[in-house]
Amino acid sequence: MGLFCATPLLAQTGKTVTGTVKDHNHLLSGVVVTEEGTQNSVRTDANGYYALTLQHDDAKLIFEQLDFPIREEEVLNRSVINVSFTKEDDEIQLKDVVINAGYYAVKDKERTGSITRVTAKEIENQPVNSVLDALQGRVPGLEITPTSGTAGGGYTIRIRGQNSIAAGNNPLFIIDGVPFDTNSMGDTSTSAQIFYGSTINPLNYIDPQSIQSIEVLKDADATAIYGSRGANGVLLITTKKGKATKTSISIDASTTVINPTKFPKLLNTEQYLEIRKKAFANDGVTMYPTIAYDINGTWDQTRYTDWQKLLIGNTAFNHNIRTSINGGNEQTNFMIGANVMKESSVFYGNYAYNKFSFFSTLNHKTANNKLKLQWTTNYGQDKNYLPTQDLTRIARTLVPNAPRLFNEDGSLNWENNTWTNPLAALNASYRNNTRNLNTNLNTSYLLMDNIVLRSNVGYNRSDLDDIQLNPHTIRNPSFGATSQQSNMTKNSGQHEGWLIEPQLDANFNLTASSKLSVLIGGTLNSQTTTKLVIMASGFTDNQLMNVLSAAKNVTIYKDTEEQYKYAALYGRVNYNLHEKYFFNLTGRRDGSSRFGPNHRFANFGAIGAAWLFSKESFLREVSWLSFGKLRGSYGVTGNDQIGDYQYLNTYNISQNGYDGNILLTTARLYNPDFSWEKNKKLEFAIETAFLKNRINLTLNYYQNRSNNQLVGYSLPAITGFTSIQANLNAVVENKGWEMDLQVVPIKSAKFNWSTSFNLTIPKNRLVAFDGLENTSYANIYVIGKSLNSKKMYHLQEINPTTGLYEFTDYNGDGKITAIEDKQQVVSLDPSFYGGFSNSVSYENFNIELFFQFVKKKGFNEFYGTTMPGTMYNQPASVLNQFPNGVIQNYSSGSNSAATVAYSNFNNSDAMVTDTSFIRLKNVSLSYKLPLSKNQSNQYVIYAQGQNLWTWSKYKYGDPEQTTGFLPPLRRISIGFKANF
């Protein structure tokens, strides 16, 4: 009760303050003017004018405008307050920017947690379809790797490393306050060959240009309020909102040219045939086999086809148009927008990726500013038409003197049944149709001058229908196949969820120099995921392959429904003393349906503190120090990203029972003690600014330890089961350093230059794992090494007598076997990564360059390839053969010793190479046309490029994608923007 009495409620004074807000003589509309400590606010109109009736005698006004620091003005006895946002040297106050921390907002200079913000400007300058592409290299501690360059493909996303051995490691995505499930609904039966890991990126539905900002929450203080859902970090995506201004229309139209960045150098026909001849000679074969068409004279030995250029080297185009309408008054305003995009493919054939998205926001508040409503909706639909498999591996392995593709009459050439024409595979097709809806209603009501009741109600739904059609025409017609051999696989997935979050905020001025903020709330979240996979064959006609009733055989391959229920209570207390000492305490009690009845609920929390040492009296006269803050945090969060029903007895349906009967077989054992993984996070950081905020430097040290790991534990054979999911005393540690440097060398009315540099030095290791040898992970992980390590053979040399590879026999038994001799442990984690940007503007011209860099090891060009000398093309580096080189004697495949040696070679440390790179990730050039004196009317022409240049020691294609799937593509775009 004492807290509520600490700040007496003051009667509204009735005094009205008016004024204008401008930037270098341009009047600014949409600037938010707020009476500090209240919900009392207005926006400037189209002429930059505002009028605000005050509630307190001792009021202070807060002026907020995107891309400018906050301005604070004491009212005192003034009735007219004019404000000018400037960009002069002494006005650079980056730390005054307010950032989104999820359930609350906080000034950057006052936050106690680790939060990095990416602005709309950084995102808009990139010609990409996915927001994840736009984030690569821009945030310390955030590692994003595309799994495929194919449009619609997925990504691997990690914030400060991999915390869990078996549970989910993806961060939590919150879009306009609503959790969004980023797990792919793709299925291996339909999409595994076109998308690596069947990962179809659900975030594709969001148009990157509709995003206002992205905040990345990393440490315990920032993420603990999200409980177990935020164990792996949180990404808060906020879309653009309406403003109180005269109605305006924005249009953005662009065209993009898309090409592969780099092709690896392969053998030409002469080189390839020379290796084939040597291979047969090494094997003692003097007469070439009848099926060796490439070398026995059946095929033209002078023919050469560049299969990379033909199959994956097309020039693709992207056509994109966006439009939005914004307007309204101070009480009610809105924004609606839409985006239509069509993109062709670099694959041979007529493929397309079509995308439509729509977003809208409606803001309303009552005349007395007590009730505020914000309704946001985002909808997107993607339609992707692709071949059933990524053609990259085919293009790199198809022999260079393979026959021509077409006969003279235009039909496919099968060269007298001596080869499989690669274009026949393109008769098969893959299509997916993805629909996503995300909507929420935010409500706030001012109960008292310092107490606000809020609620957030959200709903999202994602639907995926993807289908793979394999008509009989993918086969050689001489085989006599008919539509009875045609088959279809269809996957239908749906994810639906709702969220209810009530919240109460209270702010108290305890004394003239101390403030207390209290936040309490709750979360109810329900999610349902269904999947139905149907396989059909024996069609009466290929034209009816989409019609199940036209199939002779129909099998339900998979039919699942999973429900996830989540509930929580949370609270936050923030204490501000003298505006230089800040303490933040967060607690949350989580309940999850994913755990056994004995451990369904758990408590988590964090504490954070910050000291603005630059405000101390002994530093006030230090002119070169503009800002200085020390902060630290410690907390414990859980992790329930493990999938549903893991603790229950679950069953599989088998159709192989006696006499054709259907059987139920136990898939998983019941474990009532199935419990939360726990992640303990520690962080220390220093944030500084020098020379009137021209230089801003942040250094972070973090250490995260995740224990109570959920893994499969081996059981004795007498139980009838191989393993049980259980919590084991395994500890995974992620620690490292992060640096973020921002420098403003020049800041003036006409010429501006800013640069930034971020660096992350991570280290991941398995600290402990009791009973590791009794688990299914015994041959995968090593205590003291990274989870992203690989146990491999150690290549010693090439035997001078046999000309074949030899490997270290660690147990000395004279045999090379996986369990005993894969003792070489190689880490594939990056040693460091980051980004470097420069932005220069002169009057109406602006140019921005961004470089991404990664230091790491990866697999070389031989990993996953067939043995040199067989009927597959090879990297040109195979010419470096024994005795003068590092490649063992070629073999046609008939030498079993050579085959075994090459198989071991493919699983040895000889496969690991330096795949570090520096990439010119983005270049943006724009010019603002001087067509209007009205600041709100803008006309801009621009050119943008993505993935323009890469430097790397890795020469076999792109160093970021070494899995045999299509690598990231180069994109060059030109466009025009208008706002009027």
UniProtKB/TrEMBL annotation:
Residues 408-948 form the TonB-dependent receptor-like beta-barrel domain. It is found in: Cell outer membrane. SUPFAM superfamilies: Carboxypeptidase regulatory domain-like, Porins. Residues 109-234 form the TonB-dependent receptor plug domain. Gene3D superfamilies: Carboxypeptidase-like, regulatory domain, TonB-dependent receptor, beta-barrel domain, TonB-dependent receptor, plug domain. It comes from the Bacteria. It holds the Pfam family CarbopepD_reg_2. It is a multi-pass membrane protein. GO terms for cellular component: cell outer membrane. Keywords: Cell outer membrane, Membrane, TonB box, Transmembrane, Transmembrane beta strand, Transport. Belongs to the TonB-dependent receptor family. This is SusC/RagA family TonB-linked outer membrane protein.
